[in-house]
Design brief:
Distance between the termini: 51 Å
Shape: elongated
Largest sheet: 2 strands, antiparallel
Strand order of the largest sheet: 1-2
Order of helices and strands: HEE
Strand content: 5-15%
Helix content: 40-55%
Structural class: mainly alpha
Number of helices: 1
Length: 69
Amino acid sequence: MNATVSIILIALLGAGAVLVVRELVKSLSNLITLFKDGYKREVINQRNGMVFNKKNNKLEADQSVILPH
């Protein structure tokens, strides 16, 4: 009885450790990507489409700012 409880406990702790390490690796990967020099984007290059202006019924350049999530 004591051996089965310890085996189950070790399995649960191992699964928990795997989940924690996986989230840690994801977080570190995101931080590395965030602080890279080439990751900084220009706001003008984020959206270069066309929109329809309802006030004057014309197509215009879309220069709205996209905020980070």
